[in-house]
């Protein structure tokens, strides 16, 4: 057949018609649709046998019980454990994001050795054998040179056996420089130690309180054990109107807690102690205090005379003379009327309770402020009582045998601590983590030859990040035990990655603020996902390799053996139930409650007589208000910067997981730019409107941020979200926003030496 | 959607709506075929039609 | 829109959220994301393109410092009942491909991802912004797909998704009940992920028709209200608040309308 | 070169010139195709659309071009059903414009939906209660009808007509045209209305929601009326542009004026009804859900000026021009009025789509604004270039304008 144009056209038209009428197009249309429903790049979760494992979450000091739902060998969900005494089935935003931390790309897959410059992020994968050998060689060399005291160790604020292992290691090795990261409990322990004679954190009976006076505590922002406190908050809200608890929030910013409170009293940042003492003034003046307690179980309320005949003023005289509502009003900015009202309401409430610890309570804070707040609690007599406070109890475990130090260890351990804790200047504190970078920077190079970091991310979480970075520069050998590639790990020389908390055994002691002691057990829910090892095992291994008395201090085969040994008779219950609770624990009655030298609750803390000669002795020993002035003068830095903490934004050693970052409102972060909150009044003074770019500058650093106008913040105050500005981790967290810690310097508490920083002076420049 | 589909419901909405659709489609189909067939017949018999 | 299951036990699942208790902590948002395989991206700050089946809104009373007040409003899909056959939920009425429908057994407004072809008419119809479009292919960083829940299929790009009241949990509970020879599921057997996680216990979930369920009593409280009630969407999500400005703040009122 | 294809007795530019013209049009076309490929390949994040604006420029363009394309069915309706014989001189061109408009609408929808490959689910799993289903069914059917109306025009090409079969086929089609036009009219009235129903039924969106008659909200009827008011004007506008480009008069003035007069009266009645509707909506529909209609216009750029511009400047003014004899007999005014009319309808579609979504419904929600990005512009303008090509080709090779020979004697 000749193919001319006509035939061609006919043929084409014919075949087109033929194909159209055939089932082919229909079949294709259908197939394509089915293809779009089964794209290979959309994951199909594998099915498998469903099971669940109970454990404990240790992402924060809250210690919630968790139930991990598993499908096959995959963890698919973390839920609150039903019947668990802390959280009973509920869980917080961070805890339920835990699987993103477990499976995320920010995990460190194996031991790493730095291959590029510090912080450059170029790593070489090495074997565990190699990695440990290198650490051991370095430590051995230092020890042989008699420089064992030049090894420092920073551990998380957690009180479990792993932290203690590190402390023990340093002791056996021969260095005094074991430091735990800062937290609010440092100051609480100190205040309790001084006033009650029991150095433990404060346990609050929130559930039974009927009037909660919070001095800036972010009760529902992650303060204390977050889920437990939110649950208590719901109890306050549940009772019928008559019995409904009243919550009063003292804070310059309308935080979530302030928003949910019945009354929000904004005071100038840093003046909370003055208000507490002003309230005490009214309570004392109007004799609204609990006479039975004050008269019988306290010391230093009234003026007193010592054995040598010296006259001392008491708390009563102090507050009556110095903290009249008008004077306090001048300081705090709160009208006298409100102060008087608040004091009366507080004192007359059935079970009033004052809480201390700004934000999440993760910053140390001023000792006198803490004492002033607890003096309030003492005034209303709610010590060791229902709805009151008591020293936080612990479940006892077996004590490890004393470390037998060899000569090197003895001499190294005997050297003064770098941070100065325990010296005459800082008599009452164990560690001064926030002083450490400064101490390192002040001394000649080489004060610290090697640093071990465990469960902490000091490079990010410590105040004055610039100084911290400098201190790191001065340390030639940094070993990180981190699970994640955080900032500290990024600036380490060797990383010995720890198991994720869902992959390991560990003990967890009473969550912060709980009145009933609990001992709980983290257990491996899944086998290790990467080539990681338990930090406890690694440190035992290192000790054994170092040999001699160091090895002898660790008679246990491995961490699991040690844990079982330490838990003693509680192990079986722990393994079976996951926790041991002394549900019937009751704090001792007033008669036996106080272990102070006077045997009473001390308004006048005799132990402070020896310290801080800059002030008259009587004032020194009594809770009083003294401004903690941040760096910078008012003329140059007319504004005040405070951190804004949120439960949706983890600002501790654990980086915020992607889910939590996703849950952040768009008034915190826009792209990679951070918003700071400014009152519209202040903003209009600077000609700023919503979303404007500004340079925020403090004496420590400057940063470019965006303006978010918020009526809920005090004029002249700027709030910066705390927890962003990471430089490590991954694309889901790094380079988003600004690290608030960078902008704030360390302000040393004059008496304790702990960091009393609550903010910074600042100025803004419109760009 | 056809009346034998599992989602089909015997109600006014379906009758009216789908009914209209099928009517229209049917009409168009009939018209097209009518034109085509008539034209084909014209072509076969070379019928000259009066100009429009 | 079909009535063929008349012999079946039917429920009307709904939610009551106590705004006095809600602390705006966001646990519900993440519980939902974790349960329902919601994808995430490096930058989720554009909230107009961020999938959050459960989203916590913040409402302020508009007064200046220091009289400012704030209330948090968790907003799942309202699972609107609409009014009768002729006016179903706004989204159901408009979906051209019947990809969203009211489940006869549970009253849940469903969404069939594999059927949705992404016209987004339902999103235009929904006044609550409860519906979200997949503007991107969902991607999980390597290794993270391990935590995905096999009971919920991950969505593909170009389709609309929304809160399902954790429907798969209902099916799980129902299967269990049937296996145990029960026709009805118990209140505690079927709870949504957000209700389960909420640390404040602010979210109560259950059968609104069942007097034994907590939601039944709560929804009749004088403090109960719904968002945009006047539109007639008839949501199955109720809220509780003792604060007048909150109750009034979630709907429109003409100036002359007296305080209720 | 292609003289054998060009209709007899008319003058056309050289093939080279024509090829350059088509070539020029290809450039923006490729730009548009590139944008479309981006949207298909990388998903719809390539646009400025978001969860607050699930509908945007594309949907506006869809509603707009379908309204503008109404010239085809309405002229057909006047010509074949009302037997206004004079309009046979413009009906062909109206059909060409109609085909382009409807093809554009379908094409844009093909980019707009998230899963175009399963777009046919709208037919397979149809929800008969959805206005969009009605729209999809009608415009698909009507597009088919338009194609059938366009085919006889193609068959009239000299070369094709030379084939005897096509000659006969063309003839038979012409015979069937009134019936086809009738089907087209039926379909068109419905889908133009349904397009109005698309926003009108959104009872969760008080800005768009309208009460109505049976299942049809008032916007249903307003959209029909506005479409048939602007369709003919759009035909006139395109005719004018074609005349400008070809530098020839193609349609007699009397024909245009007839069409303009009809369009004018339709527009006038539309505007009256629109005002009544707006008053009723502002005074009754919106207050019933607690909303003072002023609050709809509280956020810029959607201030009250929107209403004034749409109804006043782009409605009342062209209506007055078109219904007065002096107005429409002045060519410049006629074109101005046609343009304002079309712009007004387009603006109406924008408002009913975008402003509806911009106005926050939950009182604690934030107002959001929207503007299309380049991908949306490029794809939305794609039909303009392709349309220009189709018109150019049709004009060159097909006897679209019966009066051309008479008006431009060789």
Structural overview:
The complex is a heterotetramer of chains A (767), B (52), C (260) and D (410). Chain A has 767 residues and is an alpha/beta fold. Chain A is built from 29 helices and 30 strands. In chain A, strands 5-4-19-18-17-6-7 form a seven-stranded mixed sheet, with helices on one face. Chain A has a six-stranded mixed beta barrel with strand order 24-29-26-28-27-30. Chain A has a four-stranded parallel sheet with strand order 11-10-9-15. In chain A, helix 5 (128-144) packs across helix 21 and helix 10 (272-285) packs across helix 14 (336-348). The longest helix of chain A has 17 residues, at 5-21. Chain C has a single domain (13-249), classed as Alpha-Beta Plaits, CATH 3.30.70.20. Helix content of chain C is 19%, strand content 13%. Chain C has helices spanning 27-35, 90-94, 121-125, 167-179, 193-197, 214-219, 244-249, and strands spanning 13-18, 55-60, 70-75, 132-133, 160-161, 203-207, 224-225, 237-240. The longest helix of chain C is centred in the middle third of the chain and has 13 residues, at 167-179. The two termini of chain C are 36 Å apart. The mean pLDDT of chain C is 92. With 410 residues, chain D is mainly α. Chain D has a single domain (15-407), classed as Formate dehydrogenase/DMSO reductase domain (Formate dehydrogenase/DMSO reductase fold), CATH 1.20.1630. Chain D contains 15 helices and two strands. Chain D has a two-stranded antiparallel ribbon. Chains in contact: A-C, A-D, B-D, C-D. At the A-C interface, strand 3, helix 4, helix 8, helix 9 and helix 27 of A face helix 1, strand 2 and strand 3 of C.
Count of separate structural domains of chain A: 4
| Overall helicity of chain A | 25-40%
Main interface pair?
A: A-C, 76 and 64 residues
Strand content of chain B: under 5%
Biggest sheet strand line-up of chain A: 5-4-19-18-17-6-7
Rg of chain A, alpha carbons: 29 Å
Summarize the topology.
The complex is a heterotetramer of chains A (767), B (52), C (260) and D (410).
Chain A: H1 5-21, H2 24-37, E1 50-56, E2 65-71, E3 74-80, H3 93-96, H4 98-103, E4 112-114, E5 123-125, H5 128-144, E6 151-155, H6 161-173, E7 178-180, H7 184-195, E8 202-204, E9 211-214, H8 226-238, E10 246-250, H9 256-260, E11 263-265, H10 272-285, H11 291-297, E12 298-299, E13 304-305, E14 311-312, H12 315-322, H13 325-332, H14 336-348, E15 352-355, H15 367-379, E16 389-391, H16 407-414, H17 436-442, E17 450-454, H18 458-461, H19 465-473, E18 477-480, H20 487-490, E19 494-495, E20 506-509, E21 518-522, H21 535-546, H22 548-552, H23 559-567, H24 571-577, E22 579-581, H25 590-593, E23 601-602, H26 617-621, E24 639-644, H27 658-662, E25 669-670, E26 673-678, H28 680-685, E27 693-697, E28 702-709, E29 717-721, H29 740-743, E30 760-766
Parallel strand pairs in A: 6-7, 6-17, 9-10, 9-15, 10-11, 12-23, 17-18, 18-19, 24-29, 26-28
Antiparallel strand pairs in A: 1-2, 2-3, 4-5, 4-19, 8-16, 13-14, 20-21, 21-22, 24-30, 25-26, 26-29, 27-28, 27-30
Helix pairs in contact in A: 5-21, 6-16, 6-21, 7-15, 10-12, 10-13, 10-14, 10-15, 13-14, 17-19
Chain C: E1 13-18, H1 27-35, E2 55-60, E3 70-75, H2 90-94, H3 121-125, E4 132-133, E5 160-161, H4 167-179, H5 193-197, E6 203-207, H6 214-219, E7 224-225, E8 237-240, H7 244-249
Parallel strand pairs in C: 1-8
Antiparallel strand pairs in C: 1-6, 2-3, 4-5, 7-8
Chain D: H1 15-42, H2 57-68, H3 70-81, H4 88-112, H5 121-124, H6 131-155, H7 158-162, H8 164-200, E1 212-213, E2 216-217, H9 218-246, H10 253-288, H11 305-323, H12 325-329, H13 331-358, H14 374-397, H15 404-407
Antiparallel strand pairs in D: 1-2
Helix pairs in contact in D: 1-14, 2-4, 2-13, 3-4, 3-8, 3-9, 4-6, 4-9, 4-14, 6-8, 8-9, 9-10, 9-13, 10-11, 11-13
């Amino acid at each position: 057949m000749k193919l001319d144009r006509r035939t061609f056209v006919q043929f084409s038209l014919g075949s087109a018609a033929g194909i159209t009428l055939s089932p082919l197009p229909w079949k294709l249309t259908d197939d394509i649709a089915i293809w779009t429903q089964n794209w290979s790049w959309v994951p199909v979760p594998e099915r498998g046998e469903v099971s669940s494992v109970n454990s404990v979450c240790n992402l924060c000091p809250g210690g919630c019980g968790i139930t991990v739902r598993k499908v096959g060998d995959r963890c698919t969900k973390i839920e609150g454990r039903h019947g668990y005494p802390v959280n009973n089935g509920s869980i917080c935003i961070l805890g339920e994001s835990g699987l993103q931390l477990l499976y995320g790309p920010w995990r460190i897959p194996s031991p790493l050795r730095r291959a590029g410059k510090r912080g450059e992020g170029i790593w070489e994968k090495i074997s565990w054998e190699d990695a440990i050998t290198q650490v051991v060689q370095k430590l051995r060399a230092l020890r042989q040179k008699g420089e064992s005291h030049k090894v420092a160790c920073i551990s998380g604020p957690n009180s479990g056996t792993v932290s203690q292992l590190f402390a023990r290691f340093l002791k056996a090795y021969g260095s005094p420089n074991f430091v735990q990261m800062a937290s609010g409990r440092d100051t609480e322990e100190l205040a309790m130690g001084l006033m009650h004679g029991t150095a433990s954190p404060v346990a609050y009976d929130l559930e039974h309180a009927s009037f909660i006076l919070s001095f800036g505590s972010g009760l529902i922002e992650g303060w204390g054990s977050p889920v437990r406190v939110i649950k208590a908050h719901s109890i306050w809200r549940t009772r019928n109107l008559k019995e409904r608890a009243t919550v009063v929030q003292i804070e310059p910013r309308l935080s979530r807690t302030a928003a949910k409170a019945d009354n929000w009293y904004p005071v100038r940042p840093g003046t909370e102690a003055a208000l507490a003492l002003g309230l005490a003034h009214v309570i004392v003046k109007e004799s609204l205090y609990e006479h039975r307690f004050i008269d019988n179980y306290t010391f230093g309320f009234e003026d007193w005379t010592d054995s040598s005949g010296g006259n001392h003023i008491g708390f009563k005289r102090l507050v009556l003379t110095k903290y009249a509502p008008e004077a306090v009003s001048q300081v705090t900015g709160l009208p006298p009327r409100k102060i008087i009202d608040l004091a009366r309401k507080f004192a007359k409430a059935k079970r009033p309770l004052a809480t201390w610890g700004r934000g999440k309570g993760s910053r140390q804070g001023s000792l006198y402020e803490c004492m002033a707040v607890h003096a309030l609690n003492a005034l209303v007599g709610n010590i060791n009582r229902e709805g009151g406070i008591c020293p936080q109890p612990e479940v006892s475990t077996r004590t490890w045998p004393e470390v037998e130090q060899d000569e090197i260890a003895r001499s190294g351990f005997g050297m003064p601590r770098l941070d100065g804790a325990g010296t005459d200047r800082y008599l009452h504190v164990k560690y001064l983590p926030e002083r450490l970078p400064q101490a390192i920077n002040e001394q000649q190079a080489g004060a610290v030859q090697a640093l071990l970091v465990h469960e902490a991310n000091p490079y990010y979480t410590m105040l004055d990040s610039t100084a911290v970075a400098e201190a790191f520069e001065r340390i030639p050998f940094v070993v990180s035990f981190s699970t994640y590639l955080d900032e500290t790990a990024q600036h380490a020389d060797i990383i010995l990655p720890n198991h994720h908390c869902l992959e390991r055994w560990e003990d967890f002691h009473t969550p912060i603020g709980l009145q009933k002691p609990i001992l709980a057990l983290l257990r491996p829910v899944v086998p290790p996902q990467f080539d990681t090892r338990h930090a406890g095992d690694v440190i035992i291994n290192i000790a054994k390799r170092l040999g001699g008395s160091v090895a002898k201090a660790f008679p246990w085969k491995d961490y699991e053996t040690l844990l079982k040994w330490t838990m003693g008779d509680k192990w079986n219950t722990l393994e079976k139930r996951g926790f041991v609770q002394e549900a019937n624990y009751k704090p001792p009655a007033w008669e036996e409650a106080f272990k102070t030298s006077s045997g009473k609750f001390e308004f006048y803390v005799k132990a402070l007589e020896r310290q801080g000669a800059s002030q008259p002795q009587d004032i020194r020993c009594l809770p009083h208000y003294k401004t903690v002035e941040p760096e910078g003068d008012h003329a140059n830095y007319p504004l005040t910067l405070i951190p804004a903490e949120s439960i949706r934004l983890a600002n501790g050693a654990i980086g915020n997981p992607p889910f939590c970052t996703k849950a952040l409102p768009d008034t915190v972060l826009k792209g990679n730019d951070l918003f700071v909150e400014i009152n519209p009044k202040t903003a209009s003074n600077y000609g700023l409107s919503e979303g404007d770019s500004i340079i925020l500058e403090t004496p420590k650093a400057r940063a470019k941020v965006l303006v978010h106008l918020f009526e809920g913040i005090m004029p002249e105050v700027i709030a910066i979200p705390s927890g962003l500005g990471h430089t490590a981790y991954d694309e889901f967290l790094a380079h988003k926003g600004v690290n608030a810690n960078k902008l704030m310097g360390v302000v040393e508490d004059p008496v304790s030496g702990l960091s009393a920083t609550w903010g910074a002076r600042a100025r803004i420049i419109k760009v | 959607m056809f009346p034998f589909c599992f989602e089909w419901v015997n109600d006014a909405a379906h009758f009216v709506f789908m009914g209209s659709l099928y009517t229209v489609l049917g009409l168009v189909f009939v018209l097209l075929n009518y034109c085509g067939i008539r034209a084909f017949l014209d072509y076969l018999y070379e019928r000259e039609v009066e100009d429009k | 829109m079909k009535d063929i299951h008349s012999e079946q036990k039917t429920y009307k699942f709904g939610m009551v959220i106590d705004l006095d208790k809600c602390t705006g902590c966001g646990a519900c948002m993440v519980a939902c994301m974790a349960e329902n395989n919601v994808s995430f991206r490096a930058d989720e700050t554009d909230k107009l393109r961020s999938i959050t089946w459960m989203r916590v809104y913040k409402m302020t009373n508009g007064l200046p410092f220091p009289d400012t007040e704030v209330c948090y409003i968790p907003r799942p899909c309202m699972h609107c009942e609409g009014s009768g056959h002729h006016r179903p939920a706004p989204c159901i009425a408009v979906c051209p491909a019947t990809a969203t429908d009211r489940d006869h057994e549970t009253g849940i407004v469903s969404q069939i991802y594999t059927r949705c072809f992404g016209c987004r008419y339902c999103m235009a119809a929904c006044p609550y912004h409860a519906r979200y479009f997949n503007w991107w292919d969902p991607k999980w960083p390597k290794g993270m797909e391990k935590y995905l829940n096999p009971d919920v299929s991950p969505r593909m790009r170009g389709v609309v998704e929304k809160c399902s009241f954790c429907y798969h949990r209902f099916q799980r509970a129902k299967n269990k009940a049937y296996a145990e020879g029960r026709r009805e599921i118990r209140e505690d057997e079927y709870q949504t992920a957000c209700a389960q996680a909420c640390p404040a216990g602010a979210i109560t979930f259950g059968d609104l028709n069942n007097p034994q369920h907590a939601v039944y009593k709560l929804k009749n409280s004088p403090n109960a209200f719904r968002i945009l009630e006047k539109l007639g969407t008839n949501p199955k999500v109720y809220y509780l608040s003792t604060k007048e400005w909150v109750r009034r703040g979630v709907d429109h009122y003409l100036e002359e309308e007296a305080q209720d | 070169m292609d003289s054998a294809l060009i209709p007899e007795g008319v003058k056309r530019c050289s093939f080279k010139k024509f090829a350059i013209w088509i070539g020029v049009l290809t450039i923006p076309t490729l730009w548009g195709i590139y944008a479309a490929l981006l949207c298909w390949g990388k998903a719809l994040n390539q646009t400025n659309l978001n969860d607050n604006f699930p509908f945007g420029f594309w949907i506006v363009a869809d509603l707009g071009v379908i309204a503008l394309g109404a010239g085809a069915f309405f002229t057909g309706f006047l010509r074949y059903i009302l037997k206004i014989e004079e309009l046979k001189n413009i009906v062909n061109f109206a059909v060409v414009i109609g085909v382009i408009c409807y093809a554009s609408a379908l094409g844009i929808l093909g980019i707009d939906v998230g899963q175009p490959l399963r777009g046919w689910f709208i037919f397979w799993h149809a929800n008969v209660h959805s206005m969009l289903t009605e729209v999809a069914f009608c415009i698909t059917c009507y597009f088919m009808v338009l194609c059938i109306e366009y085919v006889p025009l193609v068959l009239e090409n000299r070369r094709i007509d030379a084939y005897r079969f096509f000659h006969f086929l063309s003839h038979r089609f012409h015979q069937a045209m009134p019936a086809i036009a009738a089907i087209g009219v039926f379909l068109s009235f419905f889908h133009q209305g349904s397009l109005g129903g698309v926003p009108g039924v959104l009872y969760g969106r008080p800005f768009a929601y309208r009460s109505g008659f049976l299942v049809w909200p008032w916007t249903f009827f307003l959209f029909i009326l506005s479409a048939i008011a602007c369709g003919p004007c759009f035909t006139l506008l395109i005719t004018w542009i074609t005349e400008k480009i070809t530098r020839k008069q193609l349609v007699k003035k009397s024909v245009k004026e007839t069409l303009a007069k009809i369009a004018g009266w339709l527009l006038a009645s539309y505007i009256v009804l629109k005002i009544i509707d707006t008053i009723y909506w502002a005074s009754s529909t919106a207050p019933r859900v607690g909303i003072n209609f002023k609050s709809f216009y509280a956020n810029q750029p959607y201030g009250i000026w929107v209403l004034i511009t749409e109804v006043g400047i782009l409605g009342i003014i062209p209506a007055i021009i078109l219904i007065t004899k002096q107005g429409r007999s002045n060519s410049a005014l006629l074109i101005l009025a046609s343009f304002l009319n079309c712009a007004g309808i387009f603006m109406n579609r924008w408002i009913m789509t975008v402003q509806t979504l911009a106005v926050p419904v939950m009182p604690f929600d934030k107002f959001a604004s929207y503007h299309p990005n380049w991908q949306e512009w490029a794809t939305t303008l794609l039909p303009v270039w392709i349309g220009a090509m189709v018109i150019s080709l049709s004009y060159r090779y097909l006897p679209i304008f019966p009066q051309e020979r008479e008006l431009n004697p060789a």
